[in-house]
Model the fold of this input.
Amino acid sequence: MPTSRTAALYSPELLALAIELADFPFDPQAPVTGEARSRSCGSTIALSSARPDRIERLGLRVSACAVGQASAAIFAREAADMTGETLAATLEELRLWLADDRDSTLLPRLKLLEPARPHAGRHEAILLPWKAALDALSNPRSAG
Done:
């Protein structure tokens, strides 16, 4: 039987976010791809995008816990047209949010990840989508 702490972390709303990832299929032929891996839990995210300067036609391949999947779904709904600069600023704000007790209005559905904040082992999974996106935009493949 899950503890109340576990139940609070894995709410039905958080678990439901994973379904949204089906709307963002990874394209291995996309001109821009990137990956990120959590050292703490082994979760991975691969990301594809149609443009090297911003996120466009986002695709994701996520192998992560429910928290990582939820974070990827939140990212997917917010990432359209984000540039490397915007992604880096958002990643830094997320790091500060995870390390602090303050509320965040940074992303509309970020409150769904609120129960994961006390679980430091989940923080890397939360940050993975932004790290994968920065990797993708910093390493575009040559056309042709």
